[in-house]
Structures are given as C-alpha cells and as structure tokens.
Amino acid sequence: MSNWVWPVAAYLGQGLLITLWISLLTVVLATIVGLVIAAFSQSTLTLARLIGRFYVDVFRGAPSLMILLFVFFALPQIGLRTGPLTATVIGLGLWGGSNIGEVFRGALSSISHRQEQGARALGLSATDALVFVILPQAFRRALPPYVGQLTVLVQASALTSVVGVSDLLGSARQMIERLAYVGSGQSHAIEIYLGVLSIFFVICYSLTALASAIERRLRV
To answer: Which CATH number fits domain 5-219: 3.40.50.2000, 1.10.10.10, 3.40.50.300, 1.10.3720.10?
Structure first.
C-alpha cells in the first residue's frame, strides 16, 4: 500500500471526529429550536403563530450555506466573537430548526382535536391531555421524518469547511493540496474524495435505514 494512505487516513479520522461533533451539536440545537417553533405554530396566541410562521418561511426559504455565511460574518459585527465551529453550529442549527419545527408541527396537527376532547371528558386537565395523550402520539408520527432530517443535517455539515473548519471535507482538501505540493503533482484527489464520499454514504445510509425501520415498526 502506498505510503501516503495511512497518514491521510489518520488525518481524515481527525476531521471525521470534528464532523461528528458538529453534527451532534447541530442536531441538539436544531431540535430545541424546532420544538420551540412547533410550540409557537400551535399556540393559541396569534402573535406566537405569526412568529413561528415567519421563522419557518425565512429559514426554509434560504440556502443553508447562506445562513451559515451570514451568521459567520454577522456575529462579529454585533460584538459576538465566535470561532468558525460555533458559528457553524449556530447557523446550521437555526436552519435545521425550521425544518424540524415543521416536522413537529405537522405531527401535532395530525392529531385529531377529538383526542384532546376525549381526554378532557375523562377528567384530564389541558396540560395532562397534552403530555399524556397528544404528545406521545405526535412523537410516534414525528420520529421517522425527524430521523430523516438528521441525515440532512449531517450532509449540511460538509459546508463547515467553507468557513475554515477542518472537518472531514476540509481535512480532505488540505491533504490533497499537501500531497500535490510534496508529491510532484500527485494529489490523489480522486481516491481521497471517494473515501470521504464513502464515509458520508455510510453515515447517511445508516440514518436513512434507521428512519425506514422506525417507520415500519410504528406501522405494526
């Protein structure tokens, strides 16, 4: 095996850890934002519903890369000094939150009002009806598309190299440039990018398979 493979693999492994860490933090932030937006969208207050709708329309209508770049360059302008990794998590988390918010909103909207009415007729309070009757059913319906959205967020994490984060894709690009410089033009770009593609495929395919398995199980 060529002597460039193991050093490149080790360097890509470090980038993979950063990608997984970014993906995890982004998923956590996007889930929190999504829950808040879904709550706003289902609120009885008109202002809250308008805020939720406005947020979803703005962030779902903008490319994830534009949101990422806006957060990265805008935060320092208002005095918030963050590194590229933090800006990435915030940008992708806000963008992903709009999509996850729609997943949760759709799941809540799919529950018939008769479910709440029946729970209230049995003596449950509005809060108890929400917690013990509505939310468990909504969670079951939201789980498959929610896991599907995780795949989208993992794919979007590849954009982090644009702002200088040495994630999996950024590490691959650095190694290609380094090999081209020291290896008489032999960058091995095809092999390295195929390796990166394979890693993303394994991660995303696993999440897609998980979503399908959950959906089949919930149908039983």
So the answer is: 1.10.3720.10
Lowest-confidence segment of 60-64, 113-117, 196-200 by average pLDDT: 113-117
pLDDT at 132: 77
Question: What pLDDT score does 196 carry?
Answer: 92
| Nearest C-alpha neighbor of 42 from the set 111, 105, 98, 103 | 105
Rounded to the nearest 10°, the torsion over CA 83, 86, 88, 90 is -140
Q: What is the DSSP letter of 47?
A: H
C-alpha to C-alpha distances, 89 to 71, 82, 138, 145, 153, nearest whole angstrom: 10, 11, 27, 21, 10
Q: Kindly list the domain boundaries of the chain, sorted by start residue.
A: 5-219
The pTM score is 0.86
Expressed in angstroms, the distance from the first to the final Cα of the chain is 49
Helix boundaries (H) for the chain: 5-41, 46-60, 64-77, 84-109, 113-121, 126-129, 135-156, 168-182, 189-219
pLDDT of residue 220: 52
Neighbours of 150 (CB within 10 A): 22
- Ranked by mean pLDDT, the top range of 73-77, 132-136, 181-185, 205-209 is 205-209
What angle (nearest 5°) sits at the alpha carbon of residue 66, between those of residues 39 and 164? 115
The answer to whether residues 187 and 176 touch, using CB atoms and an 8 Å cutoff, is yes
Confidence of residue 1 (pLDDT cuts 50, 70, 90): very low
